[in-house]
DNA sequence: GTCTATAGTGCGATAGAC
DNA sequence: GTCTATCGCACTATAGAC
């Protein structure tokens, strides 16, 4: 386990995925404990199982027709829980939305902090950051897709959290590029614009999944392609 | 005029914008004439003026809170037309959606065919295609943003048209890259993945406008940056 | 802990006055 | 050509049976 963590995302997408699945249950347990005032269910096992089902079903339905358009009747039918049952897990459709966004943010934070090492050299840090980001969004694709496409329907404070997350990711890349520039390993005219371009190509992976799936391009293939492309951009000379 | 067209988008964003505004009115006139069965208004001047207002208002409202969430009552209040008046320009909310999408598609087609020349050398074609695409999405940013973010709420046939447009743009870049490869001017391992990456960076311009605006980056600055970046990627050696 | 039945709200769409 | 008034419907949310 310690070795696996030390290797970052080097063990490939499957090892990464195995760890993520465990984290999802953990985080739903946390959500259950934190919201025990509004959640009327008392048995933790039942509640966590249903919360995972509610979140997954909501993401699936919303990603094919939008969260606003998805009625709680749809969610009830697809999840197998009645309207009444649903309302013992959240007090409004808005609260359901907040719970989902918060679950995703916690997952993201947990995984990113686990896989980023300050003491690696810039070039390794750059390729690790790209690969980890791709793996993360591959495993949590429905959530990232959801958070991105529903962002404009959110309330102010929720929107700000989405934007903050976006800029935080970009900042990771800006810092790596500037560190590489200072060390003379990279020659990157505008770290800000370059980081922004990297971010755009990373986002394409979870926003246009249909395209890559249709073309039989795996996340590892895309990672290799993207790392090479970025290294060409930042290479001196 | 002939010179302007011959120079493609070389005259900068402002010349481009001037031409586009004229086109919008033309296209609304076409829409009016084509839909005269469902549009109850008879005076062309009145109808076109109101159609432009309806489209603009719908895009503005939808881009801040989503098309589904925007009620026709909202649209009525913001546009200054009553519910009854609105319904003399379209027969359902769905038809309004179709009219907007069709208006944008016509604009896109008209502008792209006007600015792309088959007989230029690959390198010039590549930079012209990037610049023209950026100018187009700059001038019609609300429409592109709308078409992208509402795509999943559309019906099957409308969705297919959005995807077809997406792939058509990508094809333009694949063809240019392959032509350059064949001529020995480019050395691009995977034209498909590279075109897809270029597309992702082009889309970032209209999807993340808030970010570029906040950083005071103009469309011309972004164009110069992106063209240089892409030329680095495809350069041999 | 989960269900069914229903109250209350706001929507898309239309009819008819002006 | 545009308005106001209104209908029927689908939604969120809740109350009370089991």
Approximate strand percentage of chain A:
under 5%
Oligomeric organization of the protein chains: homodimer
Report the helical percentage of chain A: over 70%
Q: Helix-strand pattern of chain A, N to C?
A: HHHHHHHHHHHH
Would you give the CATH topology of chain A?
Tetracycline Repressor, domain 2
Q: How many whole angstroms does the radius of gyration of chain A measure? A: 19 Å
Structural class, from secondary structure content of chain A? Answer: mainly alpha
SSE order and pairing:
The structure is a homodimer of 237-residue chains.
Chain A: H1 2-6, H2 12-34, H3 44-65, H4 72-79, H5 83-86, H6 93-115, H7 122-139, H8 141-149, H9 156-182, H10 191-207, H11 209-214, H12 219-234
Chain A binds a DNA duplex (18 and 18 nucleotides) through residues 40-43, 46, 71-73, 81-85, 87-88, 91-93.
In short:
Chain A is mostly helical and 237 residues long. Helix content of chain A is 75%, strand content 0%. The first copy, chain A, has one domain (2-234): Tetracycline Repressor, domain 2, CATH 1.10.357.
Explain what the structure shows.
The structure is a homodimer of 237-residue chains. Chain A has 237 residues and is mainly α. Chain A has one domain (2-234): Tetracycline Repressor, domain 2. Chain A is built from 12 helices and no strands. The first copy, chain A, has helices at residues 2-6, 12-34, 44-65, 72-79, 83-86, 93-115, 122-139, 141-149, 156-182, 191-207, 209-214, 219-234. In chain A, helix 3 crosses helix 8 (141-149) and helix 10 runs antiparallel to helix 12 (219-234). Mean pLDDT of chain A is 92; it is low at 1-6. Chains A and B meet through helix 3, helix 10 and helix 12 of A and helix 3, helix 10 and helix 12 of B. Chain A binds a DNA duplex (18 and 18 nucleotides) through helix 5.
